[in-house]
Design a protein that fits this description.
The chain has 136 residues and is an alpha+beta fold. 35% of the residues lie in helices and 32% in strands. The strands form two sheets. The chain has a five-stranded antiparallel sheet. The chain has a two-stranded antiparallel sheet with strand order 6-7. The longest helix is centred in the middle third of the chain and has 14 residues.
Length: 136
Amino acid sequence: GVIEDNLPHSFSRDYLSASRHQEGVGYLTLTVVVTRNVSERIRGFLASSMLEVAPGVYSGSRLSPAVRDRIWDVLNDWFSAEVDAGIVMLWYEPRMPGGQQVRVRGSPPLDLVELDGIVLTRQELLGVRGLREALP
């Protein structure tokens, strides 16, 4: 149709096809990608397949798992050329603790841990040993 012909990226055709077949089944969920210090190549790619709601923050409503995985595969492949960058992708996943799945590339490295059914991030604090030694 007219809408499909005017879409900017091939993922959009896949998205429309998946959303027609899986609507109401619970497979299509909001996906959010947050970026830090990424190249224009990655920003342009994400903007062509998702809505940029704030600088470096992208939202894709009702993305199928296949489309979400394809987006992540491209980001993962291109990430090796990035310097001091970070990408976080998250979406609703009822089988996971806290009800969400999180994928992370880059810095700062995050360690995701479950505590009483809640997913938390754990990071090593830099200089904590020196701070403890400096305290009276």
